Amino acid sequence: MASVAVVWTVLLGLTQTARAADLTDFSDNLATDLGPLLSLFGEAITKQYLSESTSFEDYIIFALAPIGLMTAVVSVIRVCGGPWLKSFIGRAQEGDVAVEAELCTSTSEDICEVFNRGGITRTLGRAKILEIIRIPQPDDTDEATQNSQSFDTGNKLGSEETSATHNSARAPASNLRSKQGKNVNPNLSINVGRRKQDLPFVNFILVVGVVLQVGLIAMAPLLFWVGGWSVEGRRESLLNIHQAYSANKAPIVFVVGSVFMTLGMFGCASLIGQITKEIKFRRQKDSNGTQLYWVQAGNQVIGDQTFGAYAYSEDSDHRLSEYVISTKRDEDKTVKRYVTFTWVTVVATIGGYIVQFVGIRGMNAWISIAQLAAMLIMSMFRGMMRTQRLKNNGNKIQDISEAVVGHEMDWLTFEI
Questions:
Q1: Does the keyword section mention Membrane (predicted)?
Q2: CA-to-CA separations, 172 to 129, 132, 133, 135, in angstroms, rounded
Q3: b/e string for 243-260 if b means 16 or more Cβ within 10 A?
Q4: pLDDT at position 78, please?
Q5: Is the pTM value of this prediction over 0.85?
């Protein structure tokens, strides 16, 4: 009996030792794999960012310490990919209108943006929304002149001309769209839905992202080849850089994979962004008296949803510095070129991720932890770029929304 007890004790001890070793290996593997695996997820925030990106800075920030890799790849295939790529992701029969509504900033005859209880909803259909530019006129002149409102692409949002006929004049902003050759639904998300961040703040985020991404890429070879680190930790005896490179090529694999993945993610964002065309009208310094109004008809049914009456105007403290019209580019001129770029982007993104993952598996877990920290920091900053949005109390007719249905223009007349 004593010998049996000894045998069981030894076996139990060996089992506990094996379990402890397995637990240690599991924790090490989890720490090593956590960063790369988390970079695959984040569908909702990735789609939100891509659907609101219009500038070169937005594309670069998206590619630095990125998340939502699979969402970005699928999105660029849906927007710019050819039939074979769309079949590969199960989107062969998907129409362009549905993709544009979900991933692009543009509106068209089939896609509209509607005020919806403190937010803005993109949906299929046509909305009854009137955009009006109010132009105040001086009362102290007797000379009657014709009122007009002129817009020049890219340099001003209107110039005022005096008129003694009326105290105020209204110019429908839809005239701007007609002058551009298209009469599409208003772009509420860009102009009203979110407030554009100041350029210094965007540049600050850009610099932080570059520092984090470059620092992460440089960290691997510096720690392993110069600092003498290994998978288990720091070596007792340092090797020269040639010996360290021969002993462990994982850092260079990680660097190559990270560079290609970053370039691929930039390609995903830029392709999706460049499929649309933005026309900007900047406000003149001497036109501060002008004011934009948006009036939405009540009880209108678009699709299977009913939208109520809504009225919004520029805040006197935060006037629009520019008015943006976003439309989709002519597909016949861009589809062939974009399909080729999409192939390159998809291969670079997925291939870079695989190579990076292989490299990070051959290095210490601190590299993965640093990558995870960089991803979290950049995700926080990307979210901060989109925090200033339409307020819940922005509806000027919120208290009388039911009573004003059918008389929205009457309300606007008294408001102006």
A1: yes
A2: 11, 4, 6, 11
A3: ebeeebebbebbbbbbbb
A4: 92
A5: no
